[in-house]
Amino acid sequence: MPNAENSAGYSGGMAHAEHHYVPAFLLRQWETGADMKLTSFRWSRGKVAASRFKAKSVAKERHLYSMQRSQVEPDVQVEKEFFSHHVDNPAAVVHAKMLASGVSGLSPEDKQVWSPFLISLMLRGPKMIQHIRRRGREILSAGLDRSPKEYLAARGDDPAPTLRNWVETNQPDTLDDLGVMTLPHLTFSENLNLAVLNVTWGIRSVHPAKYNLLIGDRPLILAGTFETRFLLALPISPTKLFFAFNDERTFANVRAYEQDAFVKATNTSTVAAAESYVYATDAVQQPFVQKLLRKPRD
To answer: What are phi and psi for residue 286, nearest 5 degrees?
Structure first.
């Protein structure tokens, strides 16, 4: 069965080939109604269309961060072993704790689980993965172009004129995979995680409000930079927003918003950041999403 939202064109049927760049445990909070599905918004035929899906069927791409993608069965270890076991499964436990009792009951260990999960959401979207693969290719290619005399002296009868040509012919996936190999290091980067851990965390409930929170295919909201003042926010349910900040003026601004204005401001940021998809509990906010969701390039 094809992916509900996205397909990268691979036909292999191996387990863990579908890579959820927004994990289903998070999106499952938006499943509502008699069908227990969420509403997915996207541009289609000149307008924003609304469709109903299970959380497990959206925000995924086949072999998004697999390695050796030219092979019949690409290497899915980044999804299977890293994101599933070391990031998403532990984060799902902390997510449930926050829904039940906020951030006050989180242990230091819980925070050390949640922080890499937040960092991962910055890294694993389709466009960011494309960027990471491209940068990896550029860096490795530059390295392969160095010391051409040594390669020419060592190549023997090999017809490849440069070491890069040899790699492109004999190890074509190496250039494509270097960037993906850095994902575990980036996700658990000490500098990035300390920036998130050594600040104030909170959760704001938006119930009651006229509308629910939306969540997008780039769900993390970041205002400012880690080096200066920043606010990092993530909808963790249709009525609760996790946030982290490093300046008390930020908290004052968050607290000053009345409920409906706060939801509107948050949802504006969510839709503006989305690449292609926005998710909701129902279709009530379809006109709002249509005004702000970027149109796909022809």
So the answer is: -55, -45
Taking the whole predicted model, whether its pTM rises above 0.85 is answered as yes
Torsion angles phi and psi, residue 157, rounded to 5: -90, 5
Q: Rounded to whole angstroms, how far apart are CA atoms 183 and 61?
A: 17
H-type alpha helices, 49-171: 77, 89-101, 108-123, 126-144, 148-154, 163-170
Question: Which residues does 58 contact at the CB level (< 8 Å), separation at least 6?
Answer: 4, 5, 22, 27, 38, 40, 277, 279
pLDDT exceeds 90 at position 22: yes
Phi/psi of residue 67, nearest 5 degrees: -110, 165
Tens digit of pLDDT for each residue in 234-249?
A: 999 999 999 999 988 8
Is 236 in contact with 243 (CB distance < 8 Å)? no
Q: Rounded to a whole number, what is the distance in angstroms from the first to the last CA of the chain?
A: 27
Euclidean distance between CA atoms 90 and 73, whole angstroms: 28
Rounded to whole angstroms, the Cα distance separating 219 from 128 reads 13
Q: d(Cα 179, Cα 202) in Å, to the nearest integer?
A: 33
